[in-house]
Specification:
The complex is a heterodimer of chains A (410) and B (272). Chain A has 410 residues and is α/β, with parallel strands linked by helices. Chain A has helices at 34-50, 54-68, 78-84, 103-116, 130-142, 152-157, 159-167, 182-195, 213-221, 223-236, 251-257, 286-289, 327-335, 345-359, 365-379, 399-405, and strands spanning 23-24, 27-31, 74-76, 88-92, 121-126, 145-151, 171-175, 200-203, 242-246, 267-275, 291-295, 297-302, 338-344, 386-390. Chain A has 16 helices and 14 strands. In chain A, strands 3-4-14-9-10-13 form a six-stranded mixed β-sheet, sandwiched between helices. A four-stranded antiparallel β-sheet of chain A has the order 1-2-12-11. In chain A, a hairpin with a 1-residue loop joins strand 11 (291-295) and strand 12. In chain A, helix 4 runs parallel beside helix 5 (130-142), helix 5 runs parallel beside helix 7 (159-167) and helix 14 (345-359) packs across helix 15. The longest helix of chain A is centred in the N-terminal third of the chain and has 17 residues, at 34-50. By secondary structure, chain B is of the alpha/beta class. In chain B, helix 8 (160-169) links the parallel strand 6 (152-154) and strand 7 (174-177). The radius of gyration of chain B is 17 Å and the shape is globular. The mean pLDDT of chain B is 94. The chains are: A alpha/beta (410), B alpha/beta (272). The interface between A and B is large, with 41 and 49 residues.
C-alpha cells in the first residue's frame, strides 16, 4: 500500500538487512496466523544461536564439501562467449551440486538446524520438484521423516522427480486445492506445520516466507556468491563486471548476489519468467509487472488482481511459476541496486539449446532464462569484460517438457 | 457502547454463552449470504463473522478454502461482501457483524477506504488472520478512527507476554484458537482450553471466545462452559456446501445446525 512504501533511501550497507523484525525496507516481515508466531520465534532464536557456532559451521561445511560436492567450478564458456561476440561469460556450476541444483545448499543447512532443534519430521513444498528432491536427500542423509507437498498439476508434469523423492523415503502429497501448483503447495505446507508445530520443521525452498526464512535461506545460499567472489579474485584477479541469475522466489539469485551487493562496480541483473510475454499477462514476473502486497508471510511484489486476489502464473519452467518473489529482491529493485528484466518462454528455450550445443551443458529451464539474458547483455559489452551467470540447475528434469513443447518424439 | 459490547452484555445478563457463527461472504453465490445471515440469527446466533474471500487462505482448512473458491468464482471481494452486509443491516440493526479475512485484499483496497466503507456498511469488528500485532499499527489506527473493533486471535502457542500485548490492543472480544492446526481440524482438549482461557482472563476484562474444532451441540456445550462465546465456522460452511444447489434446503440445514449449537450452549454441563 502506498503509505507504507514511502520514498526509499538507498542504504549504504546492504549487509545490515533485514532488521530485527525481518524487514527489508518496507518488504518482508512476518505476516502469519498467531499460531505460527511462536515456532517462528523459536526458529529465529535457534538460527541466531547456531549460525556462528563453530561446530554447526564445521558440520555444515563438511556436508557441503563431501556430500553436496562444493566448491563448484567457475567455468569459462569460451565457445559460447566467442559466438556471442562480447564479454567473457563464466558459469557458476551449481548444476553440479548433488541432486542437480543449488537447492541442496539450503536444505542441508535447514535440515542440520532441524536436528539441532530436536525436530524429527520435515515438511517442504515443491514446484518442479528440485527443492523436494533436495529436501528428501538431506532428510535421508540425516534420518529425518520427510513430507513434501506438491501441486497435483506439478505431480503430473514432474513424475520423475516425484519418484526420486519416493526413492529417498519421502512421502509426496499431491495438493488439489486452488491452482494445484507451487503456491497451493506452500499453503498446504504451512497448514501442516501449524497442525504439527511441536515435532515438525518447515524447510522453505526459497528466500520468501515469514521472517527469518528470507534471511536464513539467503545466508545458506550465499556460499554461491562467496565462492564466486574468491574464484574471480584468485583466477582472474578481479571482480566480474556483471552478475546474472534467474528469479522465481529468488534463492539462487540472492545466493550469488548477496556477497557482491557492496561492490558497486558490479552490475547485477535478476531475470524473471516472461512466459508468453509480459505484455500478454501470461507470465510469472511480479517484479516487472506486479505490485506490492502480502502473501505467504511477507510483503513483496506480487501478481494479483485489483481485489488483492493472487493470480495464476505462466512459465515454461515450473520452478519460476510463482506469483511472488523474495522480499529482499523487492527491496533491491526499489533501491535500484539490482535491475530486474524478463525473458519469455521462446527466448529461454533458444538459450537452452544454445548452451547444450556450444558447451555440452544442458541447463535447467529456469536457468535458461538467465542464459538468454546474459547472451543479450554480453553482446553489448567489451571482450575484456566479464559476466558470471549462476548456472543454478541442470536440465535433465526438463527434457520431457522441452520435447513436448517442441512437438518432438524421443 | 459498541454493538459487540452491547451484545455480550445482553448475553451475560441472560446468563448465556454467546454463539458466534462464521460464513464466507458470497458462498456459494452472492445471493445466498444475506438469507443465510438472517437464518443464523433466527436460529440463535448472537454474532456473525463474515469471511472476505481470499485466493490463498493459508490459516483455513479445506472446508473454508473451498468456500473461498466458490465465492471467488463469482468474483466476490471486499466490495461485494460489504454490499451484503449493507443489505443485511436493512432488516437487522442489532446483530454484530465481524469481518474476517486476510491482509492482502485489505491492503489493495487501502486501509482508510476499507475501514470507512466497512463502518458505513454496518460492520462492527475486523479480524485479520495473517496480521500479527507487530505489523498492525497502520491498520489499527484506521480501524480505531472508524470505531471498528480489532478482534485478535490467541493461539495455544502464544506466550504469556504476547497474550498481555495482544489483549492490550484488543477490543470487542478476544478469540482463543482452541487447537493447533487450521480451521475445521479435529479433536478438542477441553482441559488445555480451560487453562488457556484462564490465562487470557488474567490479562483482560474483555469477553473470551473460543473456536476451531467445534462440530456440534455437544462440542459447543463443553467449550461454552469455559468461555463467554463459542465460534463455529466449518460446521456451518460444510452445510452450505452440501446444499449449494438448493437455497431452501441450504437455509434449513444452516438453521438446523445452528439450533443444535444453540441448544448445546444453553444446556448446562453435567459433571460426570
Amino acid at each position: 500500500m502506498s503509505n507504507v512504501i514511502q520514498a526509499i533511501e538507498k542504504p549504504a550497507d546492504f549487509s545490515r538487512f533485514p532488521d530485527a523484525a525481518g524487514h527489508f525496507g518496507p518488504y518482508g516481515g512476518r505476516f502469519v496466523p498467531e499460531l505460527l508466531i511462536a515456532p517462528l520465534e523459536e526458529l529465529t532464536a535457534a538460527y541466531e544461536r547456531y549460525r556462528n557456532d563453530p561446530q554447526f559451521r564445521a558440520e555444515l561445511e563438511a556436508d557441503l564439501q563431501y556430500y553436496v560436492g562444493r566448491p563448484t567450478p567457475l567455468y569459462y564458456a569460451e565457445r559460447w562467449s566467442k559466438l556471442v561476440g562480447g564479454a567473457q561469460i563464466h558459469l557458476k556450476r551449481e548444476d553440479l551440486d548433488h541432486t542437480g541444483a543449488h537447492k541442496i545448499n539450503n536444505t542441508m543447512g535447514q535440515a542440520l538446524l532441524a536436528v539441532r532443534m530436536g525436530k524429527k519430521r520435515i515438511v517442504a513444498e515443491t514446484g518442479a520438484g528440485q527443492h523436494g528432491v533436495a529436501t528428501a536427500a538431506a532428510c535421508a542423509r540425516l534420518g529425518l521423516k520427510c513430507v513434501v507437498y506438491m501441486g497435483a498439476e506439478d505431480v503430473r508434469r514432474q513424475s520423475v522427480n516425484v519418484y526420486r523423492m519416493k526413492l529417498m523415503g519421502a512421502e509426496v502429497v499431491p495438493v488439489e486445492s486452488g491452482t494445484r501448483t507451487l503456491k497451493d503447495a506452500l499453503n498446504e505446507a504451512f497448514r501442516d506445520w501449524a497442525a504439527n508445530v511441536d515435532d515438525t520443521f518447515y524447510i522453505i525452498g526459497t528466500v520468501a516466507g515469514p521472517h527469518p526464512y528470507p534471511q536464513l535461506v539467503r545466508d545458506f545460499q550465499a556460499v554461491i556468491g562467496e565462492e564466486t567472489r574468491e574464484q574471480c579474485l584468485s583466477m582472474h584477479s578481479r571482480l566480474p563486471d556483471a552478475l546474472v541469475a534467474c528469479v522465481g522466489g529468488g534463492s539462487n539469485a540472492m545466493g550469488l548476489f548477496y556477497p557482491f551487493l557492496g561492490d558497486t562496480d558490479v552490475t547485477i541483473y535478476g531475470v524473471e519468467a516472461g512466459g508468453d510475454g509480459v505484455e500478454t499477462g501470461r507470465h510469472a514476473a511480479p517484479l516487472a509487472a506486479g505490485r506490492p502486497g502480502v502473501l505467504h508471510g511477507n510483503r513483496t511484489y506480487l501478481m494479483e488482481n485489483e481485489d488483492g486476489q493472487i493470480l495464476g502464473t505462466h512459465s515454461v519452467s515450473a520452478g519460476l511459476d510463482y506469483p511472488g518473489v523474495g522480499p529482499e529482491h523487492s527491496w533491491l529493485k526499489d533501491t535500484g541496486r539490482v535491475e530486474y528484466v524478463a525473458i519469455d518462454d521462446g527466448e529461454a528455450l533458444a538459450a537452452f539449446h544454445q548452451l547444450a550445443e556450444l558447451e555440452g551443458i544442458i541447463p535447467a529451464l529456469e536457468t535458461a532464462h538467465a542464459i538468454a539474458y546474459a547472451g543479450q547483455l554480453a553482446a553489448q559489452m567489451r571482450p575484456d569484460q566479464m559476466i558470471v551467470i549462476n548456472l543454478s540447475g541442470r536440465g535433465d528434469k526438463d527434457i520431457n517438457t522441452v520435447m513436448e513443447v517442441e512437438g518432438m518424439n524421443p | 457502547m459498541s454493538r459487540i459490547e452491547h451484545r455480550f452484555a445482553q448475553c451475560k445478563e441472560a446468563g448465556k454463552t454467546a454463539l458466534v457463527t462464521y460464513v464466507t461472504g458470497g458462498d456459494p453465490n452472492p445471493d445466498a449470504t444475506v438469507p443465510v445471515m438472517h437464518a443464523l440469527v433466527r436460529a440463535g446466533a448472537d454474532i456473525i463473522e463474515v469471511g472476505m474471500p481470499f485466493s490463498d487462505p493459508m490459516a483455513d482448512g479445506p472446508v473454508i478454502q473451498a468456500a473461498c473458491d466458490r465465492a471467488l468464482l463469482h468474483g466476490t471481494g471486499i466490495k461485494g461482501v460489504l454490499d451484503m452486509i449493507r443489505e443485511f443491516r436493512r432488516e437487522d440493526q442489532d446483530t454484530p457483524v465481524v469481518l474476517m479475512g486476510y491482509l492482502n485484499p485489505i491492503e489493495q483496497t487501502g486501509y482508510e477506504k476499507f475501514c470507512r466503507d466497512a463502518a458505513a456498511a454496518g460492520v462492527d469488528g475486523v479480524l485479520t488472520v495473517d496480521l500479527p500485532p507487530e505489523e498492525s499499527s497502520a491498520l489499527g489506527a484506521a480501524l480505531s478512527e472508524h470505531a471498528l473493533d480489532p478482534i485478535w486471535l490467541i493461539a495455544p502457542t502464544t506466550s504469556d507476554a504476547r497474550i498481555k500485548a495482544i489483549c492490550a490492543q484488543a477490543r470487542g472480544f478476544v478469540y482463543y484458537v482452541s487447537l493447533k492446526g487450521v480451521t475445521g481440524a479435529a479433536s478438542l482438549d477441553t482441559d488445555s482450553v480451560g487453562s488457556h482461557v484462564d490465562e487470557i482472563r488474567r490479562a483482560t476484562q474483555l469477553p473470551v471466545g473460543v473456536g476451531f474444532g467445534v462440530r456440534d451441540g455437544a462440542d459447543a456445550q463443553r467449550l461454552g462452559a469455559l468461555a463467554d462465546a463459542v465460534v463455529v465456522g466449518s460446521a456451518i460452511v460444510s452445510r452450505i456446501a452440501e446444499h449449494a444447489d438448493d437455497p431452501a434446503e441450504m437455509i434449513a440445514a444452516v438453521e438446523s445446525i445452528t439450533r443444535d449449537l444453540r441448544a448445546g450452549l444453553d444446556q448446562p454441563v453435567v459433571e460426570a
